[in-house]
Amino acid sequence: MMEKKKFLLRIDDNIYAALEKWAADDLRSINAQIEFLLKQALTKSNRLNENRTKTDPDPDKTIKN
Q1: Residue 8 domain-assigned (yes or no)
Q2: 2, exposed or middle or buried, with CB in 10 Å at 0-12, 13-18, 19+?
Q3: Is position 55 within any domain?
Q4: Is 21 or 2 the better-scoring residue by pLDDT?
């Protein structure tokens, strides 16, 4: 398994409390919940490299109307 990157996250108390409750409801740690939500958002926007094929355009370089 790949080693995970460690970093400090400053977050609003209300957001943290909501994440804490949501994580408990899903039987996850807060860290696992944040990682789950980030991965879900990255997958949905096709920004996660493991989901992007070589022919997919880079979303950061795509002109948006």
Answers
A1: no
A2: exposed
A3: no
A4: 21
DSSP secondary structure letter of residue 45: T
- Please say whether the beta carbons of 52 and 46 come within 8 A: yes
**56 — pLDDT class (breaks 50, 70, 90):** low
CA separation for the pair 22, 24 (Å, rounded): 5
- Angle at 57 (CA atoms; ends 54, 58), nearest 5 degrees: 100
Select, from the ranges 1-5, 17-21, 59-63, the one with the highest average predicted confidence (pLDDT).
17-21
Classify 19 as helix, strand or coil: helix
Question: Into how many domains does the chain fold?
Answer: 1
Q: Tokens for 53?
A: 């094929």
3-state DSSP assignment of residue 50: helix
Tokens of residue 56, six digits: 């997919």
